[in-house]
């Protein structure tokens, strides 16, 4: 039996494993500050502050366990008439974006993404609810995908 998240005869492309680092760095900064404050207060004031340090440390351990698996679950596939994007482990999703519905395609990269050599392709469609994104692509692949999707979208739109 085939899964609705694995259409037959589809070859999935994966995002860069550097996306794991791009997602863990902000989490480490956000959760690291309460850990450091808790450790400092535990040494200076009371051992009860180890709880303040332990809770965000446990949350980061969970995030560090889940994020690599989430990144491995992200994939995209170009077909003749549409683009497929899948993601998620527990809550899986498969987004099908017909080329004729694409209005424009953006490539974005924040400072951390640029440092890690990553970019995100953002697809904007005629329907607000079907906008899709593919994070964690190398910049050259993101540019290639942007150009290819834009040209396919124009060709399909011109045929209407």
Automatic annotation (TrEMBL):
Ranges that cross the membrane: 24-43, 49-67
Keywords: Membrane, Transmembrane, Transmembrane helix
Domain annotation YdbS-like PH: ranges: 72-149
Signal peptide span: none
Name of this protein: PH domain-containing protein
Organism, as annotated: Antribacter soli
UniProt lineage: Bacteria, Bacillati, Actinomycetota, Actinomycetes, Micrococcales
């Amino acid at each position: 039996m085939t899964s609705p998240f694995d259409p037959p005869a589809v070859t999935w492309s994966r995002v860069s494993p550097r996306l794991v680092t791009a997602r863990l760095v902000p989490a480490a900064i956000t959760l690291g500050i309460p850990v450091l404050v808790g450790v400092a207060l535990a040494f200076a004031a009371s051992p009860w502050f180890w709880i303040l340090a332990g809770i965000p440390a446990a949350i980061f351990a969970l995030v560090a366990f889940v994020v690599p698996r989430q990144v491995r679950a992200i994939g995209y596939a170009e077909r003749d008439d549409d683009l497929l994007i899948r993601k998620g482990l527990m809550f899986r999703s498969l987004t099908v974006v017909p080329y004729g519905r694409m209005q424009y395609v953006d490539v974005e990269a924040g400072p951390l993404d640029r440092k890690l050599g990553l970019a995100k392709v953002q697809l904007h469609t005629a329907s607000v609810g079907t906008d899709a994104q593919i994070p964690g692509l190398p910049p050259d692949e993101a540019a290639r995908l942007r150009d290819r999707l834009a040209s396919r979208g124009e060709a399909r739109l011109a045929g209407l």
